[in-house]
Amino acid sequence: MAEVMEMLALSPTMEEGTLAEWNKAEGDAINEGDVLAEVETDKATMEMESFFSGTVLKLLVEPGQTVRVGDPMAIIGEEGEDISGLLSELGGGGGAKAAPKAEAKPEPAAPAMEADTGTKETPVESGDGRRIKASPLARKMAEDKGVDLGSINGSGPGGRIIKRDIESAQAAPTRQAAPVSAAPSGELRAAAGLSEVPGEQQPMSQMRKTIARRLVDVWQSTPHFYLTMDIDMAAAMVVRKDINAQLKAAEAGYKVSVNDLIVKAAAAALAKFPKVNTGFAGEALYAFDEVNVGVAVAIEDGLITPTVRNADQKSLGTIAREVRELAGRARDKKLKPEEYSAHTFSISNLGMYDIDNFLAVINPPDAAILACGAVQQVPVVVDGELQVGTRMKVTLSCDHRVIDGALGAEFLNELRRNLEQPMLLLV
């Protein structure tokens, strides 16, 4: 019997994914666990494995198309099996054209205009908490007609609600159509005070969509406050230079960066001030059992935060090797979900871009994020005399629901002590 392969949730925060490419073509044999497709999620490009064995009978999505979690992707069954009835139930037999073999790299195609094919269904919940599946066109028709989806028995595959179910349903006054907002291009023209603005509207990647949504949510819901401090990095830079010279002589194959020193210093400070290593959990605070430091890494579509787990228990060398390896795979979009989740504190370092100082937005579930600027030689006054100092400016963004000013200041002072006496990081 033919089975419908649906889009899987390939990361903890994934709500939809973009099909990068099919690894199987129509007519190919496939076993359970074989890689069926590569999907661009909100964090990385990941492999989607088949739940079924048999023959790929129909591919329902084009490369480049965005699909919500739970929506049909392909039909798998016995070779030669008649799936016309299933295609009809899905809404008329629409779907993707046959994909080339995995070695071919098809150009992403623009999503087609939506028909009631059922290829982009998404589950919703009724008022009593039941899980309902309905196609996008059916949902739109229900909104326009004021029809309660929870009152309809779907006639599509698996009880899905499709177009004909809405057409036969009685309108109910329990639902109102949502207001339609202006198109982004229209908003831009209005903001500019112009009827025409040269340019073109560009689609957002899954990562960019997630970043945009999360930043708005965090900025609107989290009360930020900021603490800024100058740190004398002269001793740390000397120790780093000596360590790297010895690593080079030993042909270790890696170096210790300024950022590695910061990760180690922050982890040690978090171990001493565990209240900073705490998250906000609605009506309670959540004290994390591990000190997991997320390190913001810039990639093509935005940012991702690989996590150094139990950083307070790792040596400086181990942290240096781990950060280098994680950052490399982050840029290749090959991180596993457990490698960019479970952070309890984050660090964003723009020193390599010659940024003096900046304010970072907190990265949930953390209650704080440390923004680090460049290590610079600047004029300083020591014992009444003007000297050249080596300084780095850091700013701690704090969630005021968890961290008060005094606690944040104590944490920063401990961080400074660790960096100004770097031999403490080596013992």
Automatic annotation (TrEMBL):
Q: Which Gene3D superfamilies match?
A: 2.40.50.100, Chloramphenicol acetyltransferase-like domain, E3-binding domain
Q: Pfam families, per this entry?
A: 2-oxoacid_dh (PF00198), Biotin_lipoyl (PF00364), E3_binding (PF02817)
Provide the residue span(s) of the region labelled Disordered: 91-161
Entry's cofactor comment:
Binds 1 lipoyl cofactor covalently.
**GO MF annotations for this entry?**
dihydrolipoyllysine-residue acetyltransferase activity
**Quick one: a GO biological-process term for this protein?**
pyruvate decarboxylation to acetyl-CoA
Sequence ranges assigned to domain Peripheral subunit-binding (PSBD) in this UniProt record: 133-170
Going by the UniProt record, its keywords in alphabetical order are: Acyltransferase, Lipoyl, Pyruvate, Transferase
What positions does the domain Lipoyl-binding occupy? 2-77
EC no.?
2.3.1.12
Annotated catalysed reactions: N(6)-[(R)-dihydrolipoyl]-L-lysyl-[protein] + acetyl-CoA = N(6)-[(R)-S(8)-acetyldihydrolipoyl]-L-lysyl-[protein] + CoA
- Give TM segment ranges: none
Its GO CC terms are: pyruvate dehydrogenase complex
Basic and acidic residues: which segments have biased composition? 117-131
Sorted alphabetically, which InterPro entries does this protein's record hold? 2-oxoA_DH_lipoyl-BS, 2-oxoacid_DH_actylTfrase, Biotin_lipoyl, CAT-like_dom_sf, E2/Pdx1, E3-bd_dom_sf, LAT1, PSBD
Task: Name the cofactor(s).
Answer: (R)-lipoate
Instruction: Name the PANTHER family on file.
Output: DIHYDROLIPOAMIDE ACETYL/SUCCINYL-TRANSFERASE-RELATED (PTHR23151), DIHYDROLIPOYLLYSINE-RESIDUE ACETYLTRANSFERASE COMPONENT OF PYRUVATE DEHYDROGENASE COMPLEX, MITOCHONDRIAL-RELATED (PTHR23151:SF90)
How does the record describe its quaternary structure?
Forms a 24-polypeptide structural core with octahedral symmetry.
Q: Function, please? A: The pyruvate dehydrogenase complex catalyzes the overall conversion of pyruvate to acetyl-CoA and CO(2). It contains multiple copies of three enzymatic components: pyruvate dehydrogenase (E1), dihydrolipoamide acetyltransferase (E2) and lipoamide dehydrogenase (E3).
The UniProt similarity line reads:
Belongs to the 2-oxoacid dehydrogenase family.
Protein name as it appears in the record: Acetyltransferase component of pyruvate dehydrogenase complex
